[in-house]
Design brief:
This protein has helices spanning 18-36, 41-48, 52-64, 127-145, 184-192, 201-211, 272-275, 277-285, 294-302, 306-330, 346-359, 362-367, 379-391; strands spanning 39-40, 68-75, 78-85, 91-97, 101-108, 113-120, 152-159, 163-164, 169-170, 196-200, 221-226, 230-236, 239-240, 334-339, 369-372. It has 397 residues and is α/β, with parallel strands linked by helices. The radius of gyration is 22 Å and the shape is globular. GO terms for molecular function: DNA binding; kinase activity.
Length: 397
């Protein structure tokens, strides 16, 4: 659960006092705005559980105090008041560490992307290389935006693999085997000297969908990241689901072929052995003078290459079958596909939908929306920045 925000109003610390109650309610409103960005007063009431009258009174007081900004808007055809935080220069950093890249994004309290960039990394790079590349990007983006290190609320980071939340260490099963066993939380604290928050990249992709994407009012969502590895992030009852130790959504290691290939996890016939981009690359590189890339897969599929279309169709059916098991278990409203193949759009979505409908309980499959992420390769970094906005102590406003 998100950490309690810092005190921003009032001086009476007695828990039963009116000022303490008002302070807690103000913190709930600020935290909702930090997580979701711009909201109407009615949306704030729904998200915080406060009455519309309470929200209206607190919003007016915070506008007078310069904490938030309001503007007229329309919601469901009616006039409404849009509410957003006054950024005041505070910055959250989101970092997405990948198998071959690191992406960094800087965002403000009022949910504006201030700057973003990324660099390619060599396959098999060590953790220190990735962390140093991220540090260089952060320093450069701070210069580009005119911000300073003192404005940083904290840094959120995601990696493509499971993280034990008890220790902050990367555990076996990560697409970055060179990072397994390292104290990622500790290393990042040493490198940046600011509050650090870490998570699996698929969890952060899911968080981005409900905080930056079009699904802010969706309470049950599955985000599937399809890449060299395959992982799922779960939003259940409006909050990220982490299970017992933080290792959830490892759908890439669901068995879809009993007599299939041996997976890197040691099991046989895992979804990753059938539907990962690495598998697609291996299959489509056969007989070609040079190996294809994920960008090539998207390009030749859009051009109608029959081999690419068959490989994608097979992969999509397997993904849909695995997702059907998830849907039968948790019954999400929406499944969002992300990763490096989002450019395929319907070419990938259609076989996934067929596999889902074939293997899910009919009422569940038919009522589950399936969509491609509109956040492209920004989702994980934006989710990492949201982690900071959810959990970092609020700045002095």
């Amino acid at each position: 659960m998100p950490a309690e925000p810092a005190t921003v109003t009032g001086t009476d610390q007695r828990p039963g006092s009116q000022s303490a109650l008002r302070r807690r309610n103000s913190q709930r409103i600020i935290r909702a705005l930090m997580t979701s960005g711009r909201l109407t007063q009615a949306e704030l009431a729904r998200q915080t559980g406060l009455s519309t009258a309470t929200v209206s009174n607190i919003v007016k007081a915070m506008v007078d105090g310069g904490l938030i900004l309001t503007s007229p808007t329309t919601s469901s055809g009616r006039r409404a008041l849009s509410v957003t935080l006054n950024g005041r220069g505070a910055v959250a950093v989101g970092v997405d560490f990948g198998r071959r890249h690191v992406n960094v994004v800087l965002v403000s309290l009022d949910h504006r992307v201030l700057a973003e960039d990324g660099v390619e990394l060599p396959l098999g790079h060590q953790a220190e290389e990735g962390i140093e590349a991220a540090a260089q990007l952060v320093r450069r983006l701070l210069v580009d935006t005119g911000a300073d290190a003192g404005s940083l609320l904290g840094l959120g980071a995601g990696i493509p693999g499971p993280i034990d939340h008890r220790t902050g260490k990367v555990i076996h099963g990560a697409i970055l085997p060179e990072w397994v066993g390292i104290d990622l939380l500790g290393r990042l604290r040493e490198a940046f000297g600011i509050p650090i928050f870490i998570d699996n990249d698929a969890n952060l992709g899911a968080l981005a969908q409900v905080s930056w994407g079009p699904y802010q009012n969706v309470r049950n969502l599955v985000f599937l990241k399809l890449g060299s590895g395959i992982g799922a992030g779960l939003i259940l009852n409006g909050a990220p689901f982490y299970g017992n130790i933080g290792v959830t959504g490892e759908i890439g290691h669901a068995t879809v072929a009993d007599h299939g290939l041996i997976c890197r996890c040691g099991n046989r016939g895992c979804l990753e052995t059938v539907a990962s981009t690495s598998t697609m690359i291996d299959l489509l590189s056969r007989g070609r003078s040079e190996p294809v890339s994920t960008e090539d897969i998207v390009r030749i599929a859009l051009e109608g290459d029959p081999a690419a279309l068959r490989v994608i169709d097979d992969a999509g059916l397997a993904v849909g079958r695995a997702l059907a098991n998830v849907c039968n278990l948790v019954n999400p409203e929406v499944i969002v596909l992300g990763g490096s193949l989002t450019g395929l759009d319907a070419i990938l979505l259609e076989p996934v939908r067929r596999g889902l409908l074939r293997h899910a309980v009919p009422a569940v499959g038919e009522s589950t929306e399936l969509a491609m992420s509109g956040l492209s390769n920004r989702a994980e970094a934006l989710g990492a920045a949201t982690l900071v906005l959810q959990q970092a102590e609020l700045p002095s406003l």
